[in-house]
Amino acid sequence: MTLLYTEIEEELRASVRALLADRCPPAAVLKRVESEPADLDLWKTLAGEIGVAGLLIPEELGGAGAGPGEAGVVLEELGRAVTPVPFLTSAVLATRALLPTRDALLGELAEGRRTAALAVSFAASPYRPQRGSAVRAEGGRLSGTVTGVAGADAADVLLVPVDGELYAVEAAAAVVTAGPSLDLTRPVATVTFDRAEARHVGACDLAAVLRLGAALLASEQLGVAEWCLETTLGYVKERHQFARPVGSFQAIKHRLADLWLDVVRARAAARNAVADPSAVSVAVAQAWNAGVAVRVAEEAVQLHGGIGMTWEHPVHLYLKRAKSSEIALGTPGDHRAALASLVDVPGPEGGEQ
Amino acid sequence: MNEAEIKERVAEFLAGHDPAGDRLEFLRARFDAGLAWVWFPKGLGGLGAPRELQQVVERELADTPQINGGKQGIGLGMAAPTILAFGTEEQKRRFLRPLWTGEEIWCQLFSEPGAGSDLATLATRAVRDGDEWVVDGQKVWTSGAHHARWAILVTRTDPDVPKHRGLTYFVCDMQAPGVEVRPLRQITGEAEFNEVFLTGVRLSDDLRLGEVGDGWRVAQTTLMNERVAIGGAPTRRGGGVMATVLDAWRERPELRTHDLHQRLLSLWVEAEVTRLSGARLREQLAAGQPGPEGSGMKLSFAKLNQALTGFDVEFNRDLGYDDWAFRRSEDVDFFGRGPGYRYLRAKGNSIEGGTSEILRNIIAERVLGLPSEPRVDKDVPWKDLPR
Known about the structure:
The complex is a heterodimer.
Chain A: H1 7-23, H2 26-32, H3 40-50, H4 68-80, H5 87-98, H6 105-111, E1 116-118, E2 133-138, E3 141-150, E4 157-162, E5 165-170, E6 175-177, E7 188-197, E8 199-203, H7 206-238, E9 240-241, E10 244-245, H8 250-275, H9 279-303, H10 315-327, H11 332-342
Parallel strand pairs in A: 1-4
Antiparallel strand pairs in A: 2-3, 3-7, 4-5, 5-8, 6-7, 9-10
Helix pairs in contact in A: 1-4, 4-7, 5-6, 5-7, 7-8, 7-9, 7-10, 8-9, 9-10, 9-11
Chain B: H1 3-16, H2 23-32, H3 54-60, H4 73-86, H5 89-101, E1 106-109, E2 125-129, E3 132-139, E4 150-156, E5 167-173, E6 179-184, E7 193-204, E8 208-209, H6 215-224, H7 241-251, H8 258-286, H9 294-316, H10 339-346, H11 356-367
């Protein structure tokens, strides 16, 4: 097990970063978020040409046979660019749900010909996987509602866990209602099924699926934090007040040094979670990285001064992503609460309270 | 030289020297065999071998007499690399062997009452008198001065030039007349540190390290070799100071509260990501790609140790203290003492070896590339600086 990046991972990072620099600069993301956030053309290129959609899928099922390490590097880059593509929702969450079933849909997902979404609330967690879901299955048809589903707007097919079983529903057979979301670059929607025709795919351990999602979300949060830190460093070196760069004031430098230290530790936590996606590693990575992404994004807004408060500057996209991701797949508090039993740090129980 | 060759050397050495015999003889022989610090030159305790081979030697010689890394820390970590870089051949031959074997203990005469973070402003004067220098001044925070045979000393030899340019570096004879060591009592009650008063101390010119006026550059070498605090990183999950807190937590359920539970879980997570960061740093170093992460480790550990030891006191609800007696401590016995002692001693973690504020400046300027504060003291002769 290593906490470093492999050469293959660095090559993958370089190709994703180059593509995003060309096709997904912050200004372009900002331009599309209010009309049609999901950039499906870009997703076709990422999925088909670079092959990111099949990273977690074994070669014999049509994928690249890579692993969480490679997927983590892709998510770092997607986080750095707040790229509005359904990688986490389709190529991680939906794909991981399908993997044990070895369903033929995996091949189509790997090639990027189809895109899936897991019809589970993004606010659910490995500890409360049912949060936000109320769906029942009757005679091969599904009825009910799931709130807060991420990636449903970009999906051709919805994967719906009901009572430990996984069903596939064509997106056209469900009603996907997207209201305004806090995260402009990964909006959530309410998905309603009314006797929707469903195909039974196999068994589904939803907590395990959400745990892998949480492990990889930590890498995306790292990417968000890195962009915010680097962009802020660039700004405070350029911005002059009192006839000197504002980044020469110790009040600013010390805050940035502390943030850097938080990000360094977030990188170690993210790499540990992809190298060993155990319950403890994932809880640690989420408990730390979710908070770091929010903290660095908040400081980025503050240290940009007035311009940071404008719609025109992209930093708000990162703040919104960071704050939404803090809730996604379990809050830091949920993950810390899980650690209490995982690492034997019991609560007060019968003690003084 | 590779791992197999080093192992062969160690085997040859062990064939000729009995580890069960006289400790000092064994250590001297180990030095002479070049197995003290393999990356040092031949004849000076080394073999001119790659530094990573040292761990092979340490493994092979793990069951033989060992040097005292704690008491000899300043000699090994700071004096030795400086002597190696700036010493004359004669100085290297005179000092390095007894330094390594521990026959001669070293201390560091750098900080002064008026020069802490701003070391270059120090005021201890050295004035030339023929082949000798006469030193007058006061040093402070000197760990182990009461054991020391020698000290590394920075003095001011030219007050008429800006502060960084008028310094000269010496080896100070701690047995010379005029050297007075007084214990400095700490907030814990005991004295690990000393004040050292230098009054008319005469040092011969052959104790000078480096050129006259080049003391700042020599001192930089010393400070850069000050050990990265990574040595303090626990290698197992929930180890180090956290282990002490967790033991108490598990043994005393009646003292647990919801508020403490939430805070402990947060600290546990911070300790764990800090440990992972240290593990990642060690991997980088082993792969020959040292990253800037090292600069942050001491800062992280200082903050964590202080938070954890403070938590421990609060959790225990003990209003007592184990022992305020004013005594000279040989070594820091962090875990052998009570929570109150640990809480107070950990306050030094953000001061010793560079304050956390200075470390943040270093990270900000050298790692993040942020501009330095405007300086008013750079081009002013030292004697004209406000003090």
